[in-house]
Specification:
The complex is a heterotrimer of chains A (410), B (327) and C (329). Chain A is of the alpha+beta class. Chain A has three domains: 75 residues, RNA polymerase II/Efflux pump adaptor protein, barrel-sandwich hybrid domain (OB fold (Dihydrolipoamide Acetyltransferase, E2P), Beta Barrel); 57 residues, no CATH class; 221 residues, 2-Layer Sandwich (Chloramphenicol Acetyltransferase). In chain A, the strands form seven sheets. In chain A, strands 13-22-21-20-16-19 form a six-stranded mixed β-sheet, with helices on one face. In chain A, helix 6 packs across helix 8. Chain B has 327 residues and is an alpha/beta fold. The N and C termini of chain B lie far apart (46 Å). Chain C has a single domain, classed as Rossmann fold (3-Layer(aba) Sandwich), CATH 3.40.50. In chain C, 43% of the residues lie in helices and 10% in strands. Chain C has a six-stranded parallel β-sheet, sandwiched between helices. In chain C, strand 5, helix 8 and strand 6 form a beta-alpha-beta unit. Classes of the chains: A alpha+beta (410), B alpha/beta (327), C alpha/beta (329). Chains in contact: A-B, B-C. At the B-C interface, helix 3 and helix 4 of B face helix 5 and helix 6 of C.
């Protein structure tokens, strides 16, 4: 295998050099340590020794030819070895004497129009300035002075010659915003969200676990309870209400998931203060239901309904949005299947709810049945807990949702 | 054709007119044996005698007014104001009398007089002897105002002025006096109110008056070497102004540079610029109208300052370059 | 030819009667103008010479038709005396195209070149150089025409007065500088505006004769003017005449005359009325009797009425007349 001989970097400031003398020609034997060539650096001429033994099977630069450092200038290999000559990058040849001054004949002006990037139209309310002659000529040609202006960067006022030289094909299409830009400042709820999300994203090593859950039972349960609960308790049960109930129950069995990661440690909280993310016109907010684990389904449903109504009615109090221990955020009414919800710090978990779709599955008898599947995405703070306990929690939650009658057992 | 100076051309016109019509006579300070402050009337008193070459006292109001009275009653006086600055003393007779009598009297009488006077700077005569005030009389209806730049134009226009039945203000320029040109012998007339294109060009219409015509022509030579080809338009008559020639020139070039020695503010350059933008030439303008004119200052005494106060050849060159390089 | 009132100009009785008639024409013309102006039928302003009839007529009667005058802004009397058409004068004041100036000049610029009236002047002292110029023409053309320059006392302080007297004097031009000293400029009493008691003394500065006369004595005016005119015709040069007189009315219509006393005015009206005094003189000399004198006055009034009728019958200029006659052909 042929060995490369490179233009060496012989000083910290050297970036190119030229061979002032070759001591071997192609075909000559080369021993390790033998002087192969002399190089003129940016300072002095230095003799360069061969690192390899063999034959000089390729020599690619002439004496005086300036090349960048690390250019392959020769190969050493076996006598009969064939090797492809590399492409030598050009570097300007320093001439010994100054080149003769070219005779001062003005080169004929060749109108080679370099492609131009269009210039933006003036934004001062007046628009493009153009001389009367230019406007007249433009009108005659059926073009606008605006087009000419954009196609002729650097001009201040469109003149006749600009119209005459107008070449639209020369212009790199540049997107020109015609609409009005709107600026929403970093204030208010947007700032809150931005700060919160950034903090969460930057400080929490978050992992998301996705699971599909068969919600046939859940939906059946809802259907059965719906009318009665509404009539007797005045609240219309939703899937979210049921999920919240199941989450609260599951958290009782996995108390370490109901925690807040604070400076001094992981605070495992006694109560489940369950936050439900509410989408607003220009942001989102997470009011929470305190002590969710102690509430009956109806109580929880009512509390969730009340809390989630507060943002829209401007009725939120600080207590409603502080002290949360677990958040549910649902995109279930959209096409989103699963996602990576950002943890609502300092909580350590957040449950994202995706869409429910009908799937075809094999049942126990290998029959194809239609089932309703909902996606759950559980993000957890990997500082405070780990994949396995999180997965266990998720498993218990899924199991509970799929077998709601087990609620009667505990 | 022989070459004579502007001074000689003026003298020839006066002399030829006086030889032909005994009603023509000249009046002014020191125009007799002294030959006039600028030598224009040298030798004339010897030919025509003291009655027709009237050496007046220093009394501009009486000189101008006597010219009015003589003109009303059948004479054709040509009076000289030694420096155009002294028009201030004669102004009532010129503005309130000469300019208006024909109109006020219902066209019943004419005032065929000519006022000749040298204006302009460049001789170190300082503030009260160096002004260009032709716009004052250009402003007054009833007066004809002529400002010839060359010997040829001066003679032909002076003949026309003397022959005209209206009061004519004939502005010479001190520095024009020694310029030379080909001038025909004998009487010839250049029509009043007709401009002259002193140099054909295609890039910029340089409309210049009086001595500025000469500077513009010098600038033209310099600019030609750089590939800038200017057209020099000399209105020759300020009132009535040959708008057509000016407009046609600007239509051709699309660029106008007005060059006058008079102070820019409210000077005749303003009238020229206004004409260009209010006439047909407006649509052909490919650059705003530019004016080079006198600085808004009394003319200083010191020679370098004196030069700085009015447009010079280099100013015209630079202005033209800037116009052509505009983006 | 009877010359019951001797005078240097040899004006005979008929000529003196004519002078009397002319004075009445002027008086009645001015009063009529005053009346119409008060009614708003005459535009602008008027400067009436009521009380100064003798200066105008006395000097005018000595001049030939081919002689010239330049008149002042208070020049109706001067122009009537020179022979300018009264009908056309009235028409001019009414702004009609049938006026002396085709309605374009007005009171202060009334001119009739054909009868030697080179025009009234709105600029005080504006006429001096023009009269000098006309005299220059006569001089250069070797005619024996003269130019008589009417001027007021205030104008003798203008530069043009001095320049013109000097120029006329050095060139010995046939011009008469006739100062109607009615004691006031606009409101400035001449005694406050000049340090000399008699303005005629200013002639000394210019090496020409000067004379002060009673401007309200027609014969005195005739005599002084005649001397000056003859001197001029002989080529001996200009003369300065100062005719002391008084204007009865204010400078112009808008003059409340606060600068003089009622007593002064009364004195001049009752004791120094040039027409009344000349009438006495004519009757005394037996040239006229009362009835005839009255008749002349009545006929003069008729002439004025005819002038008014002429003026009223005239037309105003069309809009297109605005831009005509700015330049001569």
């Amino acid at each position: 295998m042929a060995k490369e001989v490179l233009m060496p970097k012989l000083s910290s400031t050297m970036d190119k050099g030229h061979v002032t003398e070759w001591f071997k020609k192609v075909g000559d034997p080369v021993k390790v340590g033998e002087v192969l060539f002399e190089v003129m650096t940016d300072k002095i001429a230095i003799e360069v020794e061969a690192y390899d033994a063999g034959f000089l099977i390729g020599r690619y630069v002439e004496v005086g030819q300036v090349v960048p450092v690390n250019t392959v200038i020769a190969h050493i290999g076996a006598a009969d070895e064939k090797v492809e000559a590399p492409l030598i990058a050009a570097a300007p040849t320093p001439s010994a004497k100054p080149a003769e001054a070219a005779p001062s004949v003005a080169a004929p002006v060749v109108q080679v129009a370099a492609p131009v990037v269009a210039q933006a139209l003036p934004q001062d309310g007046f628009g493009v300035r153009a001389t009367p002659a230019a406007r007249k000529a433009a009108k005659e040609r059926g073009i606008t002075v605006e087009a000419v202006y954009q196609a002729t960067p650097g001009i201040v006022r469109v003149q006749l010659k600009d119209v005459e030289h107008y070449n639209p094909s020369n212009v790199k299409a540049v997107y020109v915003e015609t609409g009005v830009e709107k600026v929403i400042p970093w204030t208010g709820i947007r700032k809150l969200i931005a700060d919160q999300m950034t903090k969460s994203h930057n400080t929490v090593p978050s992992v998301t676990l996705n699971a599909e859950v068969n919600v046939d039972a859940l939906l059946k349960m809802r259907a059965e309870l719906l009318e009665k609960v509404e009539k007797e308790y005045g609240v219309r049960l939703t899937v979210t209400h049921l999920l919240a109930y199941f989450v609260a129950k599951t958290l009782k069995k996995h108390p370490n998931m109901n925690a807040r990661a604070l400076e001094d440690g992981i605070h495992v909280m006694p109560s489940v203060n369950l936050g439900i993310a509410v989408a607003l016109e220009n942001g989102l907010i997470v009011p929470n239901v305190k002590n969710a684990q102690a509430l009956s389904l109806v109580e929880l449903a009512k509390a969730v309904k009340a809390q989630t109504a507060k943002p829209k009615n401007n009725a939120l109090m600080p207590d409603d949005i502080t002290g949360g221990t677990f958040t549910i955020t649902s995109l279930g009414t959209t096409v989103v299947s699963d996602f990576n919800p950002i943890i609502n710090v300092p909580e350590i978990c957040i449950l994202g709810v995706g869409r429910t779709i009908e799937r075809a599955e094999f049942d126990a008898n290998n029959n194809v049945v239609k089932v309703n599947k909902m996606m759950l995405s559980l993000s957890f703070d990997h500082r405070a807990t780990d994949g396995y306990p999180a997965a266990l929690f998720l498993t218990d939650l899924v199991t509970l949702i799929e077998h709601p009658l087990t609620l009667l057992v505990d | 054709m022989r070459e004579i100076t502007y001074t000689e051309a003026v003298r020839e016109a006066l002399s030829e007119a006086m030889r032909e019509d005994e009603n023509v006579f000249i009046m002014g300070e020191d125009i007799g044996v002294y030959g006039g402050a600028f030598g224009v009337t040298r030798g004339m008193i010897e030919e025509f005698g003291p009655e027709r070459v009237r050496h007046t006292p220093i009394a501009e109001s009486a000189i101008a007014g006597a010219a009015v009275g003589a003109a009303i009653t059948g004479m054709r006086p040509v009076f000289e104001l030694q420096f155009s600055d002294f028009i201030t003393i004669a102004l009532d007779q010129i503005v309130n009398q000469a300019a208006k009598i024909h109109y006020m009297y219902g066209g019943n009488v004419s005032i065929p007089l000519v006022m000749r006077t040298p204006g302009g700077s460049g001789t170190g005569a300082a503030a009260q002897h160096s002004q260009s005030l032709e716009n004052w009389t250009a402003h007054v209806p009833g007066l004809i105002v002529i400002q010839p730049s060359t010997a040829y134009d001066a003679k032909g226009l002076l003949h026309s002025a003397i022959a005209n039945n209206n009061p004519v203000m004939f502005y010479e320029h001190k520095l024009c006096y020694r310029t030379k040109g080909d001038v025909p012998e004998g009487k010839y007339f250049i029509p009043i109110g007709v401009a002259d294109i002193k140099r054909q060009g295609k890039d910029i219409s340089v409309i210049a008056t009086s001595y500025m015509v000469h500077k513009a022509l010098e600038a033209a030579e310099i600019l030609a070497k750089e590939g800038i080809d200017i057209e020099v338009v000399d209105p020759r008559t300020l009132v009535p102004l040959d708008k057509k020639t000016i407009v046609e020139s600007v239509k051709k070039t699309g660029r106008a540079l007005v060059v006058t020695e008079a102070v820019k503010r409210s000077g005749f350059s303003s009238e020229l610029a206004a004409v260009i933008v209010e006439e047909e030439s407006f649509d052909y303008l490919d650059h705003p109208v530019v004016r080079l004119a006198g600085a808004e200052t009394p003319i200083p005494y010191e020679p370098n300052l004196e030069k700085l106060a009015v447009p010079q050849v280099n100013d015209i060159v630079e202005a033209c370059r800037k116009i052509m390089a505009a983006k | 030819m009877s010359e019951k009132i001797p005078n240097k100009a040899h004006l005979d009785d008929a000529a003196l009667i004519e002078a009397f008639r002319k004075m009445w024409l002027i008086r009645l013309f001015e009063e009529k103008v005053d009346f119409f102006f008060a009614k708003g039928m005459i535009h602008g302003t008027t400067h009436l010479c009521v009380g100064e009839e003798a200066t105008a007529v006395g000097s005018g009667s000595v001049l030939r038709k081919t002689d010239w005058i330049t008149a002042t802004h208070r020049g109706h009397g001067q122009t009537i005396a020179k022979g300018t058409d009264i009908n056309k004068m009235m028409a001019e004041l009414f702004g009609k195209t049938s006026g002396t100036n085709k309605g374009k000049g007005g009171s202060m610029h009334i001119a009739e070149i054909e009868t030697g009236n080179l025009g009234a002047n709105g600029v005080v002292g504006g006429g001096y150089p023009i009269a000098v110029g006309a005299a220059l023409t006569a001089h250069m053309k070797h005619t024996d025409q003269v130019a008589l320059c009417y001027a007021g006392d205030g104008s003798t302080n203008e530069g043009s007065f001095h320049e013109s007297l000097n120029m006329a004097s050095i060139w010995k031009l046939p011009v008469i500088f006739f100062i109607e000293n009615n004691q006031y400029g606009m409101s400035g009493p001449i005694k406050d505006m000049a340090m000399v008691k008699d303005l005629s003394i200013r002639s000394v500065a210019y090496g020409m004769p000067g004379i002060t006369i009673d401007g309200n004595n027609l014969i005195e005016v005739v005599n002084a003017t005649y001397d000056a005119v003859e001197r001029a015709r002989r080529g001996e040069g200009p003369t300065l005449i100062e005719a002391k007189t008084y204007r009865w009315k204010g400078h112009s219509k808008s003059d409340a005359k606060k600068y003089r006393t009622r007593e002064e005015e009364e004195m001049w009206r009752t004791q120094r009325d040039p027409i009344a005094n000349f009438r006495i003189e004519l009757i005394k000399a037996g040239i006229l009797n009362d009835a005839q004198a009255d008749d002349i006055q009545a006929k003069a009034a008729e002439t004025i009425e005819a002038a008014v009728a002429f003026a009223e019958a005239g037309v105003r200029p069309d809009a297109d007349q605005l831009m005509t006659d700015i330049y001569a052909d």
